[in-house]
Amino acid sequence: MAYSEKVMDHFENPRNLGKMDNADGIGEVGNAKCGDIMKIYLKVDDGIISDVKFNTFGCASAIATSSMATEMIKGKPVEEALELSNKAVVEALDGLPPAKIHCSVLAEEAVKAAVADYYTKNGIELDPEIFGNGCGSDCAACDHCG
């Protein structure tokens, strides 16, 4: 299985790796089929993601997609983080092998779960158009990953 240089760079030198104390939003998702678990922590100041961290248990693609996803949302408004797509993460990494695309879906879902947690903690209503159709953290019911 061939990985791009960007995937290998984000795997070997992950950005924003670690746990965040006092996070404003935490999202954790997992896929029992492959064993990958992603946890994303958000720090939000005036509606902007001022800091983001992740912990991922999984393969090189899972770690690389987590790292890239955090880089793509850091410094952005929370609403913009919700627009992050797994396709954008894959493109930013110069591609993933087809069998590893599910890792980018998990990264997208982890970001959404962290934003949902932030919204819930701050009394912001969750839009079912955005939050109601994804896997969320119910991986047993998810068919995204085949």
Poorly predicted parts: 133-146
Quickly give the CATH architecture.
Alpha-Beta Complex
Instruction: Give the CA-CA distance, first to last residue.
Output: 19 Å
Count of helical regions? 6
The helix-and-strand class reads alpha+beta
| Spatial order of the strands forming the largest sheet | 1-2-3
Instruction: Output the helix-strand order.
Output: HEEEHHHHH
The beta-strand count equals 3
Tell me what you see in this structure.
The chain contains 6 helices and 3 strands, in the order αβββααααα. By secondary structure, the chain is an alpha+beta fold. It has a single domain (5-141), classed as Sufe protein. Chain: A (Alpha-Beta Complex), CATH 3.90.1010.10. It has a 3-stranded antiparallel sheet. Helix 2 crosses helix 5 (101-121).
Task: List the topology elements.
Elements: H1 5-12, E1 25-31, E2 36-45, E3 48-57, H2 60-73, H3 78-81, H4 86-92, H5 101-121, H6 128-131
Antiparallel strand pairs: 1-2, 2-3
Helix pairs in contact: 1-2, 2-5, 4-5
